[in-house]
Design goal:
Length: 238
């Protein structure tokens, strides 16, 4: 089934009224939305339901990373929220990934389960500090093959790695890419950034975009500019 809703707007805000104001201007036929740690910690499942009631698919980005039993229980709880996609950290290891997969398999509602590889705010030198003697790309490839082997639906990575990942992984494996910055936008704390058009050309399945939209003077106009940018570049949509 073709998926032409490639943009996931990251609702990284701390005010519920502002979230709802933005949501009310967005069209659920044009994008999906992401609720992350800040919003979920502030407003919890109630906000997830509120956003869903307005017709949006919710990507619950809580990036679980814990012992397998805890992650199993957390993923089970997330599945009960009827979310479209959720995240765990690939670096939690094979046993943890499989526990998450089991929780999804046992659930009535089965969200897409994607594993975060290397955060897009990190570069090679940040891995060295962690004692990892590999480039970010090598580490992303390694974690992505682990994730695929453990039954994940996809990974979160930078769009700068998607070309290499596509050669290694099956075509239907989802590549979810934050670190998206339209040309000329501020990079902020992101390090491995790619423009929306380039991300789609490189094989990104979904583009996670937060501040370039939410902090724009006119967020909806900005979203439409991004949609126009990618509409000319999308190959056959996955
Ligand atoms: O504002 P910006 O577009 O940088 O937001 C990116 C979003 O994607 C944030 O919500 C961040 O938590 C999330 N994310 C990321 N890098 C990852 C995984 C998720 O930036 N590897």
């Amino acid at each position: 089934m073709p998926d032409n809703k490639r943009i996931i707007v990251a609702l990284d805000m701390d005010d519920q009224d502002k979230v709802i104001k933005l949501i009310d201007q967005l069209n659920p036929d044009q994008c999906r939305v992401k609720i992350g740690k800040e919003l979920f910690t502030l407003y919890g499942p109630e906000l997830v339901r509120q956003v869903q009631s307005k017709g949006f698919d919710v990507f619950l980005d809580l990036k679980f990373h814990d012992i397998p039993h805890t992650v199993y229980k957390a993923v089970r709880a997330a599945c009960a929220l009827n979310v479209w996609m959720l995240t765990i950290h690939a670096s939690g290891g094979a046993e943890m990934l499989r526990a998450a997969k089991t929780a999804v398999s046992e659930s009535n509602h089965k969200p897409l389960l994607v594993a975060v590889t290397v955060l897009t705010s990190m570069a090679d030198e940040d891995l060295v500090v962690q004692g990892i003697q590999r480039t970010t790309e090598e580490q992303v490839l390694r974690l992505a093959s682990l994730a695929q082997g453990c039954g994940m639906d996809g990974v979160v990575c930078s769009a700068s790695e998607t070309l290499s990942l596509r050669k290694l992984l099956s075509d239907d494996f989802l590549l979810v890419t934050p670190g998206i910055r339209p040309a000329g936008d501020e990079v902020q704390d992101q390090k491995r950034v790619v423009t929306p058009g380039q991300a789609v050309l490189s094989g990104s399945s979904y583009l996670v975009i937060g501040r370039p939209i939410t902090q724009a003077r006119r967020p909806i106009e900005k979203l439409h500019q991004i949609l126009a940018e990618i509409s000319g570049t999308a190959p056959s949509l996955c």
